[in-house]
Design brief:
Layout: H1 3-17, E1 42-57, E2 84-99, E3 105-118, E4 140-151, E5 154-162, E6 184-194, E7 197-207, E8 211-213, E9 220-222, E10 229-238, H2 242-250, E11 255-270, H3 286-289, E12 293-310, E13 313-326, E14 341-354, E15 361-370, H4 422-427, E16 433-446, E17 450-463, E18 475-488, E19 491-502, E20 518-528
């Protein structure tokens, strides 16, 4: 292919994707948008430094312990009656993009330094006499590293790359300035524009092992192919860039975007000894490979996304259906269960903003639904081998074979945040709940390069399955979340406040204690580059 031909292909593909360059590409629609002819190797850096301080008041809601003897939120070990906990942390994130001469090849990576490190957590010496801090063992974390190749019919990508879809309800790349976790996949994918849409086919190496060491090589080899977890995803979407939306809004036109994906994951056999807690490492191949168990795991997901942009509003929605079955749910070699474990989970979200983007005021209504499971506890955290939950527990396994062989609670991604206390801090994510979230924004002052704005939201929520709550009653709470935000192109400071008024779902029926309000104050500082 001639250089002119390569340049034409790069320009045509970039035009099809219609977006500004971004080294931190996370979704299928972002791959390839930054390719152009280059005379030499180019390096682009972007990212941020973030530090956050917060004070959390009464997040255990003063309602006593659960039947398992745990508070709803961690409390002081010296004085469990103390009401306020404080915390500061930091993170330096850098996205690196390397572009080879020409217009066909790029290599990208994401690095996190001192990722969510608690300030003051590593004094170098006696705490009262410390003069410096020592570095943690994992001071540098490589989050992503992948390559991209421009072909005449699309892009071929391979490596560990971010995964994001739609509003981030299910798959979330964790790219927001306040995000704490992120999805990444070891993936090979082909992405191409065709008939006004973006089409993608991806194959993920979701889990591999156990592995063995090769002689005299710094490499391993997969020892059991049947224990691997693999995922295949097919996606298509009609997507427009911010520039296209802005042009259409100026012409008083609406923009419609949409997409869908279907994915399937499977695993034939399993080796529970590689991930279950044990006093000492287990050899999965001892006793003739007795540690290898038949699993028969299959899971599928169907997700749809729709976005409507008007000159005066944005309406966006995402809905997903997840199904799964496990032929053999036992984690103990030699102990088999008779019946399979099954799952059907449904989740949906709606976001809306009414008001011109450049206007001083906007408001909207968000809403969401996450299917529930009638087992006690919400089931946000699923730990292998954890004890079955009791009525009144806040969290725990949702399946309890042989009496209960279903796991039906849909869990939103932990970085899909709708509040600051109830779902973010106490539960950890939205699950087994319905919520409504009216919100508003007003610009207090603005200049050419800076803006000061105020935001507020009210979140009212109730459980789908009342048996999941600590009290056995459905109403969860009402939370008010105001913020004051100052922002320039290279700096953002936000002062957040939240107050949660818990409802009957968090009362302690055994001790006859009512849940009391909780509060939070958080200061966020972000330095962007």
């Amino acid at each position: 292919m001639t250089r002119a031909r390569r340049a034409w292909c790069a320009a045509a593909f970039a035009a099809a994707l219609l977006a500004a360059p971004r080294a931190s590409a996370t979704g299928f629609h972002e791959i390839g948008q930054d390719y152009r002819p280059r005379d030499k190797t180019d390096v682009e850096l972007s990212g941020y430094f973030r530090t956050r301080g917060e004070a959390l008041y009464n997040l255990d809601l003063d309602r006593g312990l659960t039947p398992s003897g745990q508070p709803l939120f961690p409390v002081s070990q010296v004085d469990p009656r103390a009401q306020t906990l404080t915390h500061w942390d930091m993170r330096l994130r850098t996205d690196v993009a390397l572009y080879a001469p020409g217009s066909m090849v790029g290599v990208k990576a994401r690095f996190d330094v001192l990722d969510n490190l608690a300030l003051g957590s590593l004094p170098d010496g006696v705490p009262s006499a410390v003069a410096t801090q020592r570095s943690p063992a994992d001071v540098l974390r490589v989050r992503r590293a992948w390559g991209e190749l421009l072909l005449p019919f699309g892009f071929l990508t391979a490596g560990r790359m971010g995964t994001h879809w739609g509003l981030g309800m299910v798959a979330n790349g964790g790219d927001c300035l306040d995000c704490d976790s992120a999805d990444a996949s070891d993936r090979v994918a082909l992405i191409t524009p065709l008939a006004g849409h973006i089409w993608a086919l991806a194959y993920d190496f979701s889990a591999t092992g156990p592995v063995g060491q090769r002689a005299l090589q710094n490499r391993t080899i997969d020892l059991e192919r049947t224990t691997n977890v693999r995922t295949v995803t097919f996606a298509w979407l009609n997507w427009k860039s911010d520039e296209v939306r802005a042009r259409r809004m100026k012409a008083d036109k609406a923009t419609v975007e949409y997409g869908s994906y279907i994915t399937h994951r499977w695993q034939t056999d399993d080796v529970p000894g590689t991930y279950l807690p044990a006093a000492q490492p287990l050899d999965p191949f001892a006793n003739g490979g007795a540690g290898v168990m038949t699993r028969g795991f299959r899971a599928s997901a169907l997700d749809g996304w729709l976005k409507l942009t008007f000159p005066w509003a944005r309406i966006e929605a995402e809905a997903a259906l997840l199904t799964a079955s496990i032929d053999q749910g036992s984690l103990v070699p030699g102990v088999l269960l008779r019946d399979p474990i099954k799952s059907r989970q449904i989740g949906a979200v709606l976001q809306s903003d009414f008001g011109a983007p450049e206007g001083r005021f906007s408001a909207g209504l968000d809403a969401g639904y996450a299917s529930g499971d009638p087992a006690p506890g919400f089931g946000v955290v699923q730990r292998p081998g954890a004890a079955a939950t009791q009525p009144g527990d806040l969290d725990g396994p949702q399946a309890n074979p042989r009496r209960d062989n279903r796991i039906d609670n849909f869990r939103f991604h932990s970085d899909y945040r709708i509040d600051r206390i109830l779902f973010r801090e106490i539960l950890g994510a939205v699950t087994d709940a319905v919520y409504a979230r009216p919100h508003a924004r007003v610009t207090i002052a603005s200049a050419k390069s800076a803006q000061l704005s105020a935001h507020t939201a009210v979140i009212a929520s109730t459980a789908v399955e009342s048996a999941s709550t600590p009290s056995g009653k459905a109403p969860l709470g009402v939370e008010i979340d105001p913020s004051l935000v100052f922002q320039t192109k290279a700096f953002l400071a936000a002062l957040d406040y939240a107050v949660l008024f818990p409802l009957a779902g968090f009362d302690n029926a055994v001790s006859n204690l009512s849940a009391k309000p909780a509060q939070l104050v958080r200061l966020r500082l972000n330095y962007l580059f």
